[in-house]
Design a protein that fits this description.
Elements (H helix, E strand, L loop, with lengths): L1 E2 L2 H21 L5 E7 L3 H17 L2 E7 L5 H13 L5 E4 L9 H7 L11 H9 L7 H12 L8 E5 L6 H10 L3 E5 L6 H5 L4 E4 L17 E4 L3 E2 L5 E2 L4 H4 L5 E2 L6 H20 L5
Parallel strand pairs: 1-11, 2-3, 2-4, 5-6, 5-7, 7-8, 8-11
Antiparallel strand pairs: 9-10
Bound molecules: NADP nicotinamide-adenine-dinucleotide phosphate.
């Protein structure tokens, strides 16, 4: 069993981004990320703080817009429009979830695709589908980096993704497919899930249920990537995989915390850098 160290890989990605941002800085180009948070969801506040901290680490400017929970959809749309037009803002991130009275899709669709560093806009989703993309969705892109870290080639492997959300499961499957994996997507209606997952050379769990993947569900030697971020009864952060039960059987496994989570933020930094390069006409 080998533990894939997301902290180490994310530090490497951020250091590459920092170096490239410094090169842009020498050309007089600064990189800016706008982070919008609506309401006072404590988990969202932690994520936003972590993103601002990462911006500081890699030498980006970050602009926080913390709006009250009563903000109307029109007010939020007006802010997005203002940020779309703001030259010092290269990337726009609207922290989800939004309060229930705001239509998340309307907000995502209003973000300029060139500044959509989460890669949630339908234009960018389409590009990912075709395989011709500038921005990769941060969490699945981070998972691909972690798989690459194992040295295992995805090509021809049986890859199983548990979960089919627009932000994780679906793009995850597409990225594995682009690397020529043989991909199976599973979800809550999948029959006999364990018989599918136990065929997986590479298993990605994005379910949102603590300890959902147990040792009997994995193939000996499999790469097991845990996207889940859940709180157990004691309030401790834990993944979708029963780490203690699976770690001896898996070939490679990611921990929670310290696996996929740090990668998501590192990939957000990389996307923001890419946005700045494209907007300044210096994308190689
Ligand atoms: P989501 O939108 O709730 O999707 C969960 C998926 O799991 C759904 O497709 C659902 O199937 C499937 N599922 C639920 N119960 C199942 C079951 N019994 N068997 C098989 N599939 C089942 O969640 P998400 O946004 O994708 O997030 C998933 C997890 O990843 C969460 O813990 C979230 O916090 C975490 N996450 C982590 C990061 C990170 O940076 N590390 C980023 C994003 C998300 P149906 O579609 O049939 O309902």
């Amino acid at each position: 069993m080998n533990i894939i160290d997301g902290k180490k890989v994310s530090a490497r990605v951020k250091s590459e981004v920092r170096e490239e941002a410094a090169v842009l800085g020498q050309k007089g180009i600064s990189v800016g990320l706008a982070v919008v948070i609506v309401g006072d969801n404590p988990a969202s506040r932690v994520y936003v703080n972590n993103k601002k901290k990462a911006c500081a680490e890699v030498g980006f400017e970050s602009y926080e817009y913390a709006l009250p929970a009563e903000t109307t959809q029109d007010e939020l749309l007006a802010l997005v429009k203002k940020l779309n037009d703001d030259k010092k803002v290269n990337g726009i991130l609207v922290q989800l979830p939004l309060p229930k009275h705001i239509d998340e899709n309307a907000i995502i669709n209003a973000i300029s695709p060139d500044k959509d560093v989460d890669a949630f806009h339908p234009t960018n989703v389409g590009h990912i589908m075709i395989g011709d993309f500038s921005f990769l969705p941060c969490t699945p892109a981070g998972v691909m980096e972690l798989i690459a870290e194992t040295g295992i080639d995805v090509c021809g492997k049986n890859c199983v993704v548990i979960g089919r959300s627009n932000i994780v499961g679906k793009p995850m499957a597409m990225l594995l497919l682009h690397k020529n994996g043989t991909v199976t997507m599973t979800h809550s209606r999948t029959k006999d899930l364990a018989s599918v997952t136990s065929q997986a050379d590479i298993l990605v769990a994005a379910v949102g249920k603590a300890g959902f993947v147990t040792a009997d569900m994995i193939k000996p030697g499999a790469v097991v990537i845990d996207v889940g971020m859940n709180r157990n009864a004691e309030g401790k952060l834990c993944g979708d995989v029963d780490f203690d039960g699976c770690c001896e059987k898996a070939g490679y496994i990611t921990p929670v915390p310290g696996g996929v989570g740090p990668m998501t933020i590192a990939m957000l930094m990389r996307n923001t850098l890419t946005a700045a390069k494209i907007q300044n006409g210096c994308k190689d």
